[in-house]
Design a protein that fits this description.
CATH architecture of chain A: Sandwich
Shape of chain B: elongated
CATH topology of chain B: Immunoglobulin-like
Order of helices and strands of chain A: HHHHEEEEEEEEE
Shape of chain A: globular
Number of helices of chain A: 4
Number of domains of chain B: 1
Distance between the termini of chain A: 49 Å
Strand order of the largest sheet of chain B: 4-3-6-7
Largest sheet of chain A: 6 strands, mixed
Structural class of chain A: alpha+beta
Oligomer: heterodimer
CATH superfamily of chain A: SoxY domain
Largest interface: A-B, 39 and 34 residues
Chain lengths: 157, 105
């Protein structure tokens, strides 16, 4: 490798690092990332990769996050979920279906006048934990999960 | 464009309880059509709501949101006569905005 190409390569790494730093500021806050939908988090195939790409660090298990979902979902194509966060200063929350091919389903920015509540309907490929991660105003993370048993999967066929 | 959303909003004091139903196939990219061809990914990626033009709720979403998505959320500080607009944008760049006027609680 010539010195020149090595320099070009180093420059490339530098730019990537900057982008990563910029994204770190925006995590779980769609207001900042809307322009570039968090592709890396959405394409992550494991929960740990997805959380890393969402810049979630050291989430604390919390009983203040209430997840309402059926214990048994007969049809995985439509599973209703309601989330209520009692974490003080909840700014945003993310929903992950741990056993889905791509676990990260959605995140919601609630920092601009919304109450810490969200309802949505998701697809589940198989029985799995539904995991919620809440970010508070201090940038701390809290998490809770609820298992939903699925009798007919909703992702393929 | 897609079909119009159904936006339901109910005032409870100064809290507006919103429920939005969107018409969208939310294709996962894993289904096959009758002749065995994979149906490409086609799904809503962002949802935003504005109250009187001010952003109040934003979401980024994946293909794992169920077909014809429903989102529920609650906004503080709303009153009768406010304008609530909801916009979705999908992965093909298609988008749709619908607006309602908040009725008296």
């Amino acid at each position: 490798m010539t010195d020149l190409s090595r320099r070009a390569a180093l420059k490339g790494v530098g730019a990537g690092g900057l982008a990563a730093a910029a994204m770190a500021a925006g995590l779980l806050r769609p207001a900042d990332v809307l322009a570039d939908w968090n592709k890396r988090a959405f394409e992550s195939k494991t929960v740990s990769d997805a959380l890393r790409n969402l810049k979630v660090t050291a989430p604390i298990e919390s009983k203040d996050i209430a997840i309402r979902a059926p214990d048994i979902a007969e049809n995985g194509a439509v599973v209703p979920i309601e989330i209520q966060s009692g974490v003080p200063g909840t700014r945003s929350l993310a929903v992950l279906i741990e056993k889905n091919p791509f676990p990260y389903v959605a995140s919601f920015d609630l920092s601009q006048g919304a109450l810490p509540f969200v309802a949505l309907r998701v697809k589940m490929g198989e029985t799995s934990n539904v995991r919620v991660v809440v970010a508070d105003a201090d940038g701390k993370f809290y998490t809770a999960a609820k298992e939903v048993k699925v009798t007919i999967g909703g992702c393929g066929g | 464009m897609g079909d119009p959303m159904k936006i339901r909003a109910k005032l409870d004091g100064d809290v507006l309880e919103v429920r939005v139903l969107m018409a969208h196939p939310m294709e996962t990219g894993q289904r096959k059509d009758a002749s065995g061809n994979v149906i490409p990914l086609h799904f809503i990626q962002t949802v935003t709501a504005q109250l009187n033009g001010k952003p109040v709720f934003q979401a980024e979403t994946s293909q794992a949101v169920a077909r014809n998505p429903v989102f529920g959320f609650k906004l503080k500080g709303a009153k009768a006569g406010d304008k609530l607009a909801v916009t979705w944008v999908d992965n093909k760049g298609d988008k749709r905005t619908d607006e309602i006027s908040v009725g008296a609680g």
